[in-house]
């Protein structure tokens, strides 16, 4: 058996060579979840915390405090969280005894974010000498009020940390104002701007594949990479959140944050060390190197009604809406590594399949010695983020059997579930990992303030151009790959989108 200690996990190779993880507990903490009765808390935060609890990552005294406007006592709150864990925690949530043990860690305090109710009681629950973390699972309009009251009631000490959810502003001006508001009460190293995409196992493995292996990094540049595609496709529409989405659209909801982070991790230079600021410095350089987009580099779309549901304008109840539910972009990076290699980004609702992936397409060999007319499928590295996390590399080999040298393309697959001896329910959810990183004080997978502002500085002119234009988004059929115009975005470069599939 081989043991390798890496941060909070011990990686162990058993007798069969399968990698398994031994979880190391974090230090003692008090975690306050503002907005604890909301949908995100019920679906992700509390089920994720429960899974970390049964994994043995909680210290003995750790406590979680729910805080919201709802008037209820701790017993009623625990009842609600019991239902959430059973529904959303997967198989571990069926262990009634463990669920009850976890619920004993929970307390509830009713607080008014813009008033005085509940703050003194909340302060009384906070223990001295432990990590104090505050998760703002609330509307961004309340971030400043909560930060101010944490300071006013003596809970914003030197060791406290706050976690803020997206959207972090809706443009550069509002993002700067929000950064300034939080900075009045907390240092930058205390602010954790969470993007759950960065907590996905495959996203972190992207850095490992690039920087821990000599195989790929020498090829990871414009000399050998033809182009890069980043796709985040969803099968659902915007029903149920139409009012929010119609004010945001795909570029604010997905491109400015999630897809920008994936772009940065794919394109960035090697940091001098796997250190929070070193990693984020390199991501910031990528954003600042992005060229402004030309109108022909952008495609917007809106899904139409189909057999499975209404169209976008019906979902948002706004028949004249010009907000996009789909966007495709051709992005260029002006630096030595990537000059001349385009990055194609697309994301949309009501598409053919739910999938998120990064596809690195390498250039063809400069000369073919085989009788294949000089045409063969390019090597591709496909990094699957969801639903089935893993990677595969397509390569050309000889087709088995007699009859000459016939080439065939085959994948070298690495499914995390198979390779790491895990299954879908055993792999930590992104929120689980990120919340534990907050307790550890590790900001590597969180966005820095200047990074957020740089992303908005690049995105704002795109949005402004759309607002000044009279052109409406291109319609596309629900269940398709998006509007035809998005296909032509690559066709004119003699390239093709990778098919959207699970």
TrEMBL record:
Q: Which SUPFAM superfamilies match?
A: Glyceraldehyde-3-phosphate dehydrogenase-like, C-terminal domain, NAD(P)-binding Rossmann-fold domains
PROSITE patterns found in the cross-reference section: G6P_DEHYDROGENASE (PS00069)
Pathway(s) per entry: Carbohydrate degradation; pentose phosphate pathway; D-ribulose 5-phosphate from D-glucose 6-phosphate (oxidative stage): step 1/3
Q: Name one GO cellular component term.
A: cytosol
Q: Name one GO biological process term.
A: pentose-phosphate shunt, oxidative branch
Question: Which Gene3D superfamilies does the entry mention?
Answer: Dihydrodipicolinate Reductase, domain 2, NAD(P)-binding Rossmann-like Domain
Which Pfam families does the entry mention? G6PD_C, G6PD_N
Annotated GO molecular function terms are: glucose-6-phosphate dehydrogenase activity; NADP binding
Q: What does this protein do?
A: Catalyzes the oxidation of glucose 6-phosphate to 6-phosphogluconolactone.
Q: What family does this chain come from, according to its entry?
A: Belongs to the glucose-6-phosphate dehydrogenase family.
**PANTHER family named among the record's database cross-references:** GLUCOSE-6-PHOSPHATE 1-DEHYDROGENASE, GLUCOSE-6-PHOSPHATE 1-DEHYDROGENASE G6PD
Protein name, per record: Glucose-6-phosphate 1-dehydrogenase
């Amino acid at each position: 058996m081989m043991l390798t200690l890496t941060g909070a996990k011990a990686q162990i190779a058993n007798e069969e060579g399968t990698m398994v993880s031994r979880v190391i507990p974090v230090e003692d903490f008090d975690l306050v979840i503002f907005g604890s009765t909301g949908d995100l808390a019920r679906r992700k935060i509390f089920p994720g915390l429960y899974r970390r609890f049964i994994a043995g990552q909680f210290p003995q005294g750790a406590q979680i405090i729910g805080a919201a406007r709802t008037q209820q006592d701790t017993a009623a709150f625990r009842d609600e969280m019991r239902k959430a864990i059973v529904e959303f925690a997967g198989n571990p949530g069926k262990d009634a005894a463990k669920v009850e043990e976890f619920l004993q860690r929970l307390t509830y305090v009713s607080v008014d974010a813009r008033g005085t109710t509940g703050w003194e009681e909340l302060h009384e629950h906070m223990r001295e000498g432990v990590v104090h973390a505050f998760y703002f699972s609330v509307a961004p309009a309340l971030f400043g009020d909560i930060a101010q009251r944490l300071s006013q009631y003596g809970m914003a000490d030197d060791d406290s940390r706050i976690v803020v959810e997206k959207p972090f502003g809706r443009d550069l001006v509002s993002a700067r104002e929000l950064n300034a508001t939080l900075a009045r009460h907390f240092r930058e190293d205390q602010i954790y701007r969470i993007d759950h995409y960065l907590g996905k196992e495959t996203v972190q493995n992207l850095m490992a594949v690039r920087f821990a292996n000599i195989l790929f990094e020498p090829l990871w540049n414009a000399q050998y990479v033809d182009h890069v595609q980043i796709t985040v496709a969803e099968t659902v529409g915007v029903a149920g959140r139409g009012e929010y989405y119609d004010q945001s659209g795909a570029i604010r909801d997905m491109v400015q944050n999630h897809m920008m982070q994936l772009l940065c991790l794919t394109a960035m230079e090697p940091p001098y060390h796997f250190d929070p600021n070193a990693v984020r410095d390199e991501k910031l350089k990528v954003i600042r190197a992005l060229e402004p987009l030309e109108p022909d580099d952008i495609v917007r779309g809106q899904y139409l009604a189909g057999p499975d549901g209404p169209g976008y304008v019906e979902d948002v109840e706004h028949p004249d809406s010009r907000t996009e539910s789909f966007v495709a972009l051709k992005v260029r990076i002006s630096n030595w590594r990537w000059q001349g290699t385009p990055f194609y980004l697309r994301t949309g609702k009501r598409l053919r399949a739910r999938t998120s992936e990064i596809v690195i397409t390498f250039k063809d060999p400069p000369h073919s010695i085989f009788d294949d007319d000089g045409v063969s499928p390019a090597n591709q590295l496909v990094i699957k983020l969801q639903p089935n996390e893993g990677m595969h590399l397509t390569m050309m080999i000889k087709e088995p059997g007699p009859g000459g040298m016939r080439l065939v393309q085959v994948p070298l697959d690495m499914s995390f579930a198979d390779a790491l001896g895990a299954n879908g329910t055993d792999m930590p959810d992104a929120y689980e990992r990120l919340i534990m990183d907050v307790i550890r004080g590790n900001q590597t997978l969180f966005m820095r303030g200047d990074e957020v502002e740089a992303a908005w500085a690049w995105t704002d002119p795109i949005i402004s151009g759309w607002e000044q234009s009279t052109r409406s988004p291109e319609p596309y059929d629900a269940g398709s790959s998006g509007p035809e115009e998005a296909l032509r975005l690559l066709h004119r470069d003699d390239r093709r989108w990778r098919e959207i599939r699970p």
